[in-house]
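Bug: token stream looks shifted between consecutive jobs. Job 1:
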Amino acid sequence: MARRSILGPVQRGAATALTALLLTSCGAIPHGSPGSGPPGPPGSSAPGSAGTPATTADGAVPVGPGPQPAYRVQTQPAPGSCHFRYADGHQPLPDASCTPGASNPKVTQSDLGTTICRAGYSSGIRPPTDITEREKTANAKSYGYTGSLHDAEYDHLVSLELGGDPNDARNLWVEPPSPDHKPGSGPDNDKDAVESTLHSAVCDHKATLAAAQHAIATNWTTAEAVLGLKQKK
């Protein structure tokens, strides 16, 4: 015969409550342990966790201020802070951190016929020499260039005929003479012919404006080949 419980209804209820309390206490998370405290807001991360990775550049040429009614002498990088690079054949290239190129916001793919593909457009937005000569002297110090300034060209990396910005310091550099240059004959660089080829390709719709700007800003010596205008060697 089973023994009958001696606890009454009230006592049994109290015992059940006490048991539940003890079980809850044993399973509680100690204060300050991982997982304690209220959850953070949606999307938040714990301290020390990796944050959102930086976005990568899409390769587009920076956009400059565009043509100005009156140009001012632009501040150049600090003396000695820029360094020439050289491509095959010892052709000079600018320092990408100092001279990445800059585009003219007034020139777009949809208005080529009224801007760079119209005769006289580039000459009409070119800064005056009293501005560019002072910039050229300062930029030569930026690059540590000690050669003849008469033979060096103060060059628009993205040329005006390709929609380059007229006077953004990021788009101008003292370009040393090409290796086959005759000393004392003044600026005459191989890059000029590349600019003309790319200009014709853009105006003939054989290359897009953005592609031509990116190609010449990256490496003018390979721009024609990159755009399929010249066989790669």
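Job 2, same session, no restart:
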Amino acid sequence: MRIALSAVLLDVPRAAVIWLSLLGVIMLAVAILALRPRLLRFDAGARIRDAALPSPDEHADRQRDQDRWAGEVAVATDRAEATARRRRDEWLTAQDEAEQAWQAYEAAEANVRRLADAAAMPLPQTPRTPAEYAERERWLHRAALDAYWRRELSVEQLSDVFAHRGWDPRLHPVQQELMLHRAVRDHLFARQQAAREREQAAWRAAELAGAAAHNLREEMIAALLPPVEERESVLPLVGFGDVDQTRDIPAVAIGRAPVPA
């Protein structure tokens, strides 16, 4: 009997240590669950979101595609910006040409007004001889040719002068000079109108090129930014234990309402 009792007494400390260890583990688990109750809770929304989101390999493939697309957009943006700068330079050049053409036309118009005032005065009398008419014709041809080399007359106008289509070489030199300056004015006005149309076309082309470059620049910035993944937007589920969905029912008085006297 004593031997059995002594054997039991020897095992008591060992059993106490085991029970105390188990009790400590249980208390630790209870404390963890009390502090972090979500560790053992089944979150169906999180499971579904994780299944719906792309895997790391798919994410890497998307990132490579995004980087390649960003590179292509960057190259296109550089080309579009170069085109926009070239179009703007062309527009500035066309604007300068239109301004110069307008100034030349204004100078020609001033010369026409000056000669018109001079032609309104009595013209000096000159002998009407064949030599005088030949001299007037030579002067007209020489003046028209000089105006053509100055790009103040077109080829068609010069041909009309030499063919005497609409031109009378027998007129007085003052009248011939007035007609010549009117032809120069008309030609410079046509050049000014053409330069104005070119300037407007160049301006429209510059505006379109600038808008295209701006759009590509914005697209390049959007392509370079990392994609934003909204994890909470994929099948958002609300836990039933998080929100108290009960509400108090207002008390309703049963009985007859008091009648005012």
